[in-house]
Amino acid sequence: MKLKDFENSVDQITFDRGKAYREKGHVVSVEEVEPLMYHAEVKGSELYEVGVHLGSRGEVMYAACDCPYDMGDICKRAVAVLLEIRDDLSQGDTAKRPSKPAPKVSLPDHLSKLSKEELIALVVDFSKEIKEVEQMLTLKFHDSSKDEGLAQYKKIIRSSVKQNSDRHGFVPYRQVSGAVIGAERVMLKAGEDFEKGKHLSAAKIAFCILHEMGDLLQSCDDSDGIVGDMIQGCLDLVHGAACDSESMAGLDRLPLFRLLLKEVSHPNLEGWNEWQLSLLESSLCLIQNDQERAEWEQQVVKLESKEKRESSYSSYLFEHLARLRYQVILKFDDDEQANKFMQDHLGFTAFRKMAIAAAMEHQQYDKALQLAEDGERQATSKGYPGLVDEWKKSRYEIYQLTNQVELQKKLAEEFVVSGEHAFYVKLKELFSKDEWPLVYERILNNLENQNHNWQVNSLYSRLLIEEKETRRLLSYVQKNKRYVVDYYTHLVDEHADDVYALFVDFIVEEAARSTNRKEYQKVCRIIAQLIKAGGKIQSERVIQQFRLAYPNRSAFMDELQKIKV
Prior knowledge:
Blueprint: H1 12-23, E1 27-34, E2 37-43, E3 47-54, E4 60-65, H2 76-88, H3 107-112, H4 116-129, H5 131-141, H6 147-163, H7 176-179, H8 181-195, H9 199-217, H10 226-243, H11 253-264, H12 273-284, H13 290-309, H14 315-332, H15 335-344, H16 349-361, H17 365-382, H18 385-401, H19 405-417, H20 421-430, H21 436-448, H22 454-466, H23 470-479, H24 484-491, H25 496-513, H26 517-532, H27 536-549, H28 554-561
Antiparallel strand pairs: 1-2, 2-3, 3-4
Helix pairs in contact: 1-2, 4-5, 5-8, 6-8, 6-9, 8-9, 8-10, 9-10, 9-11, 10-12, 11-12, 12-14, 13-14, 16-17, 17-18, 18-19, 19-20, 23-24, 24-25, 25-26, 25-27, 26-27, 26-28
């Protein structure tokens, strides 16, 4: 079709609507991006883009819009743009169009034509009408080092929280991401200050956010950890600010140090030991003299005293505080004092591990062994099985370094029969081929007799599969029919009939226990596994059995109907 009379090729209703669209000013812009190729924007329920390509003789090669219209080749938006282009071309003759179309006026060009007073009025009007504009201007111009600026940032954060809260002030799960938008904007400001070397200002903003997010955490469903991530981001920024001594302004160091110590005791951090410890660790980077060290220690003692008064007293905080104190000693004192502190705190796992590592490094294996054995006895008396295993592994490493093979064998076997596969591999390497079968059989028997432990069960079945003990694996599954779904692939080649029988028994038992659609679906999934295993005939029989046995369970009958046999 030709541009000069394209209306003859377009549906009349579409053409009339396109004409009306153009007359109402819906065509926002038209630009000739290349000779005879146009890009246009048309405003409707949203902003649509229209592309037009004209031929050298004025024919419309194509006119396409990104709207969802599918009732014809050309929509009303494309019609409006074609009319606009036709009027722009001299007398409708494409050959007489200007050789260089006028460039599209950009937004900066428009703004540059306004006076200072007009620009100010425009920005003020937008800030009154659009909340986001007001917030961005606040972040741009308020001095974050002053209380007034921080108060404005707090308003921005609370505004987003309020918009996403219910009438009780609680923020539901789906609204949490919206509730933190204000905090995210303020965090960008904190990042800008940090990049400019304004570390104290950045930290103050981060704490402003942290306080508000601490409040929000108490009144929202943060299942996705969005608020927790915001808080961690604040702590990370503070740590970066405290430890970036190269770009920090000299006057910022001491105020920042004291700000961090003050924030450790902030009400919003009470009960959140990890946050308090993070701030104490960050403040370590800022200590430069004995006076500041004493201030830091005073805060640590205060935190310890408060924790001791709590009913939920835990060694977690005290161990981590001891580790921070150790870092201070390493920074300011000599090796002798550091070693004495380590020896005085062997009751904490981290320090006993350090002491064992130091003894092994100096080949003091007897000392290292004594430390491991003492730790093992203490952990046993306190009922900490995981910690007992930690010290046993230290013993094993010492036996390995001192070539005590028999002790290695004994300890490795203890680990294996408790369910640790890594030690099975190590144990196997310690025996000759002639010795191994007897040990292997003893291990399997021990594992088989401890089937009450899931870790042991897992290792037992794993070894049977690795060692291709299919007969023994079949016996294990026969005692635990639910495992047929997990292990049939390792059994079906050699024991197909037994596997199918186990499947049927398990399916029948599950069906008898099932009382709702969800449970019926589970039964049907097991039937599908039976079919996958090659038991098509058995699955057909069991389906027919269920139809006869449970005709009144309509949901079950419905789910059975969906199975593709």
